[in-house]
Design a protein that fits this description.
Blueprint lengths: L1 E6 L4 H10 L1 H4 L3 E5 H11 L3 E4 L6 H10 L5 E5 L9 H13 L4 E2 L2 H12 L4 H12 L2
Parallel strand pairs: 1-2, 1-4, 2-3, 4-5
Helix pairs in contact: 1-3, 4-5
């Protein structure tokens, strides 16, 4: 599965702890992350991470493009709801694409843990069905 990991500045430490705690699951999947978050995950865990631009420089849009191409299965985007983001339209566009393409998305650590544990139990088999149906509609 292809998993996007994104974290606002004040949530990066939480994302690093998440990646360390669930390294045994994440290492079996393709991880795509925005700039600094991806570097920090690589350094803390040794996981292979495909890095795109930082969010404000287009990274959110790059991940959105992968969603639109049906190349993403899960998005974990730890958002900071208390800090204004200059690229808020890009963030909303990414979340909208997750809704349009039926991509599970977590925007806080509680939901991220529920989704990653479901994935660990093999409860994401329905994503393969959605992925193949989306390919048929092209």
């Amino acid at each position: 599965m292809n998993i996007a990991l994104i974290a606002h500045d004040k949530k990066k430490e939480t994302m690093i702890h998440f990646a360390i705690a669930y390294k045994h699951i994440l290492e079996n999947h393709t991880i795509i992350a925005t700039g600094t978050t991806g570097r920090m995950i690589q350094e803390a865990t040794g996981l292979a991470v495909i890095r795109v631009q930082s969010g404000p420089l287009g990274g959110d849009q790059q991940i959105g493009a992968e969603i639109a191409k049906n190349n993403m299965d899960l998005v974990i985007f730890l958002r900071d709801p208390l800090t204004a983001q200059p690229h808020e339209p890009d963030i909303l566009a990414l979340l909208r694409l997750c809704d349009v393409y039926k991509i599970p998305v977590a925007t806080n650590i509680a939901t991220a843990e529920i989704l990653i544990r479901a994935m660990e139990k093999g409860e994401f088999h329905w994503r393969e069905i959605v992925r193949s149906c989306n390919s048929c509609n092209k």
